[in-house]
Amino acid sequence: MARQHTKEDRLDMLLELGGGLCAWCGFDLARPQSRPTRDLLVPKVKGGPPRLENEVASCGACNQLRGSTSPSQFIEKSRGERMLEPNATLVADQLESLDAAIANEGGMRKIRDYVTREAKRCRQLAAG
Ligand SMILES: [Zn+2]
Predict the structure, then answer these.
(1) Residue 109: inside a domain
(2) The whole model's pTM is what?
(3) How far apart are CA 76 and CA 84, in angstroms?
């Protein structure tokens, strides 16, 4: 069974995982005006659970801009329109962890295919 963490614990852990930077734009989230947030990779509206493997640290602006855009689409959009380099490796790592958690724990049927598909796409985007 996965350990449950408070939201504050998870934000700290996500900041550490992401090297203190926004996963999407690389903004330094230690800066006082940065509003670090937990961004759900599988959005809440699509049934994404609020758990560590489904989250990355993100600045408030990227979180808001992304909305319910899929992680792979947002990586492509960020590279294209925004000329930014998201941390696609981190996003792929998280989605693969979530995919593994679903395989181990069962449940989450509604998001299973989405997670598998997005993990593959983001891994491809991370590779080039
Ligand atoms: Zn950002």
Answers:
(1) yes
(2) 0.94
(3) 9
44 CA to centre of ligand 1 in angstroms: 19
In a domain, 94, yes or no: yes
pLDDT in tens, 69-112: 999 999 999 999 999 999 999 999 999 999 999 999 999 999 99
Q: How many domains does the chain have?
A: 1
Please spell the DSSP secondary structure of 58-124, one letter per residue: EEHHHHHHHTT--HHHHHHHHHHTS-----HHHHHHHHHHHHHHHHHH---GGGHHHHHHHHHHHHH
Q: Is residue 2 part of a domain?
A: no
* 101 Cα–ligand 1 center, Å: 27
Chain segment 20-39, per-residue pLDDT in tens: 999 999 999 999 888 899 99
The pLDDT mean for the chain works out to 94
Residue range(s) defining the domain that contains residue 112:
7-127
Chain centroid offset of residue 60 CA: 13
The Å distance, Cα 122 to ligand 1 centre, comes to: 17
**113 Cα–ligand 1 center, Å:** 27
